[in-house]
Amino acid sequence: MTTIARGTDTLTRDALTVLQPGFVGTTAPDWLLRRIGEGLTSVGLFGRNIATADQLAALTAQLRAERDDVLVAIDEEGGDVTRLEVRTGSSFPGNLALGSVDDTGLTRAVAHELGRRLAACGVDLNWAPSADVNSNPGNPVIGVRSFGADPHLVARHTAAYIEGLQAAGVAACTKHFPGHGDTAVDSHHALPRIDVDLDTLHARELVPFRAAIAAGSKSVMSAHILLPALDPARPATLSPRVLTGLLREELGYDGLIVTDAVEMQAIASTYGIERGSVLAIAAGADALCVGGGLADEDTVLRLRDALVAAVRAGELPESRLADAARRVRALASWTRQARGNAAGPGADVQEGTAPGTDIGLVAARRALRVTGDALPLTSPPYVAAFTPVANIAVGDETPWGVAAELGALLPGTTTGTYGPSADPSSVLAAAGSRRIVAVVRDEHRHPWMGAALHALLSARPDTAVIEMGVPQAPARGAVHIATHGAARVCGRAAAELLTPTPPVT
Questions:
Q1: CA distance linking residue 383 with residue 495, whole number of Å
Q2: Closest residue by Cα to residue 452 from 418, 401, 402, 403
Q3: How many CB atoms lie within 10 A of CB 462?
Q4: Which of 25, 31, 264, 490 has a beta carbon 3.0–4.6 Å from 483's, enabling a disulfide?
Q5: DSSP secondary structure of 257-312
Q6: Rounded to whole angstroms, how far apart are CA atoms 183 and 86?
Q7: How far apart are CA 351 and CA 418, in angstroms?
Q8: Which residues of 163-192 are buried (b: 16+ CB within 10 A; e: fewer)?
Q9: Which residues lie closer than 8 Å to 445 by C-beta, 6 or more apart?
């Protein structure tokens, strides 16, 4: 399983230090604890590792029993991408909802409360926020994960999010540098290419990252995207021109650079994870995220040994690996200190955002955009959910929609799920005489969804339509509600609006 480095010499420890691996299970396996003892400084958590808040707190305590400065990272964006609430849906709306409200105080407060909950569970590095400018409405992987399509709006909310999160003692990891918003390909599956000139890149993609650096983001995550204007040969994660030349030297960033997951196909299918990891560290990355798909000891040892071998072969300067490890340890030191010094005052927390306050629902209500007359539902409706295939970042484990929330307010509500082969007549048959609530997600990206909705509205013009993705398609239906995200609280806010006596916010 391992062929080169078995000891705990400085080189081996540095190679372990720059890894951010995942694992399977809700308790730490023995192999992980052993590697932490040998120098592994970071651990990444995913939905599969989390059952309850108490269990998560016990897990992080188990990790810190091995070393108290271990970095515990998570991919918790709120909104559609949640790990804390992977089985129920998030208590926080995502970035697009916050951007649509455009209240930086609200964004800061939401991020602070999310950070407070993470810190309470022992998590101290969040692979968020997404600072991507969603300039391509057809983007299959960013969408509602972005604050919007305006670079300056994205910039001010990225900064506010970082300030709120880090005031709670949790390090931010601003992603996906230098910007994943203008892609038509999901880098989980292949290598996206963005053909824009340098002027466009500076005026659009880089604006939020400059704001993130000014706001003191403790880490930045690279994107597996090819930008020929910067480097025609290598994707950003593997490019010295992008990570060292642009991010370090031109933008002046001195924090931790983390790669997006190296097992994503944009890297793995072209370079392989071992070669890709060596090239990433050589290019200027300091930490290698791995474990969303590959979550075992063998992966950790393969990457450790690849880095050690590259140094010994002269392909990776030992000083570069040592510098990367130093930056990881520096962040671990900051988070250890921040755990005891999380500051409320620096978060600019507004009224109604104290611990236990449902600031996420408050934000979701404010994010609703309503077209037409919100005729109240007076009896249980039929909810027709038109469901696209979820992208890998979002996953298909997390429930979404409004059926459960409407059912809580109007018992007897029933629902059906429909895909690309759905026949609108089957929706009508299932609904019978009930009022129909049609739920869509990114209708503009799915012609089948638009066609089904057109047929449904032709037969039943009193249908209410709820768009839970990017509201790019024209609003239609007796009432059209854009939630700007599919988090649980977004569904709750829409359900409240459709019921006779929605609460006063």
A1: 11
A2: 418
A3: 11
A4: 490
A5: EEESPTTSHHHHTTT-HHHHHHHHHHHT--BEE--SS--SHHHHHHHHHHHHHHHH
A6: 26
A7: 41
A8: bbbbbbbbbbbbbbbbbbbbbebbbbeebb
A9: 137, 138, 140, 388, 469, 472
Give the length of the chain. Answer: 505
CA 444 to CA 72: how far, in whole Å? 38
483, 493 contact by CB (below 8 A): yes
**pLDDT tens, residue by residue, 451-460:** 999 999 999 9
User: How many CB atoms neighbour CB 221 within 10 A?
Assistant: 26
* 106 within 8 A of 164, measured Cβ to Cβ: no
What gap in Å lies between CA 205 and CA 181, rounded to an integer? Answer: 8
Contact 261, 289 (CB under 8 A): yes
E-strand ranges in 138-226 read 171-177, 219-222
Q: Is 157 a catalytic residue?
A: no
Q: What is the pLDDT of residue 17?
A: 97
Rounded CA-CA distance 276/306 in Å is 10
Among candidate residues 14, 124, 132, 260, the one labeled active-site is 260
* Strands 479-482 and 464-467, bridge-based pairing: parallel
Of the residues 112, 176, 180, 188, only one is catalytic, namely: 188
260 counts as catalytic: yes
**Residues of the chain whose pLDDT is less than 50?**
1-7, 343-356, 392, 502-505
Sign of CA dihedral 6, 12, 17, 22: negative
Torsion sign, CA atoms 208, 214, 217, 221: positive
DSSP code of residue 143: G
Say which DSSP state 78 is in. Answer: B
Instruction: Specify whether the CB–CB gap between 453 and 440 falls below 8 A.
Output: yes
CA distance 79 to 146: 11
179 token code pair:
């910007």
